[in-house]
Write a sequence for this structure.
């Protein structure tokens, strides 16, 4: 169908505008991730933030379809990016916060099956749509339908209620969940945060990751407080946030870079997008299965190194394709300049066979390069989704969405730079894959400095998390001394 490129003649001197609007969208995503991440931790809550950004997403997406010129289109795509930046964060945290440690990995990974399914469907819709305007109307509809048909039946996160001091609301949500699961919570039970557990004076306490249900507790309704500045004040949380910010940045550069780099591979664009999207589904399933066995940190390291290896091979193949194409082109140009003599006639016959053979070799190498990209996407898709789970577990409820928002902002910066890397690939085809390899491997090595969170509770406050981790380190040191 008709594209924005053909409608507004974005060729030659104006071809930079294609990449510019892509970058503007990701800049909008970065802004939205920061703004709605903080709002989700504060007065809006997870459900309120999700509803707001879905409504904005539908509104701006629908308006985009009626853009009269490029610059209005540019503005609306930026605003759509702002709304999109908050959708994933709020939805993921709302889905995983009520889930206990044993099931959190599987639940967190399952949320992303719909993301890859959406990309597969999008490639088909793009192929069938008569124009880009029809496509934007179609893609704006799911957000509107979600607000009307799904959101009213969702409950707010009980963890957010708890840190806001609304313990009765939190307990009501948990009782509703228990009833749907065929269980019950005693009427005398209330909730406290991990920060308040040390002040229970010997009473039994019920925390959201607890396995048991005590029968007598005091009521606590004091809201907790905390910001990203508090995260940076402590050396352990500061280091893990800095590392996660870089890993999210590197992951986005590689993930979006490989996806966009299909234009430089010389393969069918729709088929390439389709295969990249198909590769994500098994990545989610395999990562979900292995998360509970090998843990978050090891899976993150292995996935990023695997993606780096695929990109390393892809860089060499891209270089070979470029060299073979140049050699073939030079020989053809030389033959055209020669006069037709018996010798040059034989040479022309030989050159025709050589050119056909070269074209076959180039086609094979391009297919291998596409395969490297598909396997790179496979590994990085698992990494991207694992990062949501890992980051959410590394930080307490009071700053969880803000930390995810900051990390997501770094990812959006990487997504902004990804189209630029792809453009440079037109000058040096091996450069994109080479850079993706470096970013993947470096991110994997830095992940070794992060703590493991497998089977550990999600904390509610920074103070409670610091106290629990310090106690765990002390127990570990005592066990080492006994051995």
């Amino acid at each position: 169908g008709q594209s924005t490129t053909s409608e507004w003649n974005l060729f030659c001197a104006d071809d930079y505008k294609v990449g510019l609007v892509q970058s503007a969208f990701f800049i909008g995503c970065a802004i939205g991730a920061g703004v709605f991440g903080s709002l989700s931790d504060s007065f809006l809550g997870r459900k309120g933030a999700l509803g707001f950004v879905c409504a904005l997403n539908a509104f701006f997406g629908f308006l985009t379809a009626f853009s009269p010129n490029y610059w209005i289109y540019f503005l609306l795509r930026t605003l759509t990016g702002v709304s999109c930046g908050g959708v994933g964060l709020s939805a993921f945290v709302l889905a995983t916060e009520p889930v206990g440690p044993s099931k959190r990995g599987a639940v967190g990974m399952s949320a992303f099956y719909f993301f890859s399914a959406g990309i597969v469907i999008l490639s088909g819709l793009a192929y069938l749509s008569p124009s880009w305007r029809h496509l934007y109307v179609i893609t704006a509809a799911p957000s509107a339908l979600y607000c009307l048909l799904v959101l009213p039946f969702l409950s707010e996160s009980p963890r957010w209620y708890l840190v806001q001091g609304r313990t009765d609301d939190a307990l009501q949500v948990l009782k509703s969940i228990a009833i749907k699961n065929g269980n019950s919570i005693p009427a005398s039970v209330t909730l406290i945060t991990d920060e308040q557990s040390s002040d229970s004076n010997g009473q039994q306490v019920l925390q959201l990751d607890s396995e048991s249900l005590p029968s007598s507790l005091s009521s606590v309704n004091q809201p907790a407080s905390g910001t990203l500045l508090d995260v940076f004040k402590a050396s352990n949380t500061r280091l893990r946030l800095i590392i996660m910010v870089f890993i999210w940045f590197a992951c986005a550069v590689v993930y979006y870079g490989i996806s966009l780099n299909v234009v430089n591979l010389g393969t069918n664009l729709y088929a390439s997008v389709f295969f990249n999207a198909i590769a994500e589904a098994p990545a989610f399933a395999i990562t979900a299965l292995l998360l509970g066995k090998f843990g978050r940190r090891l899976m993150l390291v292995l996935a990023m190194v695997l993606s780096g290896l695929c990109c390393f091979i892809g860089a060499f193949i891209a270089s070979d394709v470029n060299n073979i194409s140049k050699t073939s082109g030079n020989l053809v140009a030389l033959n055209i300049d020669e006069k037709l003599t018996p010798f040059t006639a034989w040479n022309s016959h030989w050159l025709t066979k050589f050119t056909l053979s070269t074209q076959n070799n180039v086609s094979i190498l391009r297919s291998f390069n596409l395969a490297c990209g598909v396997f790179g996407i496979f590994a990085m898709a698992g990494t991207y989704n694992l990062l949501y789970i890992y980051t959410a577990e590394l930080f307490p409820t009071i700053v969880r969405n803000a930390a995810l928002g900051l990390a997501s902002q770094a990812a959006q910066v990487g997504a902004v730079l990804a189209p630029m890397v792809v453009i440079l690939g037109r000058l040096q085809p091996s450069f994109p894959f080479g850079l993706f390899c470096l970013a993947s491997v470096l991110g994997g090595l830095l992940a070794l400095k992060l703590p493991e969170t497998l089977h550990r509770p999600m904390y509610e406050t920074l103070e409670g998390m610091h106290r629990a981790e310090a106690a765990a380190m002390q127990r570990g040191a005592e066990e080492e001394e006994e051995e």
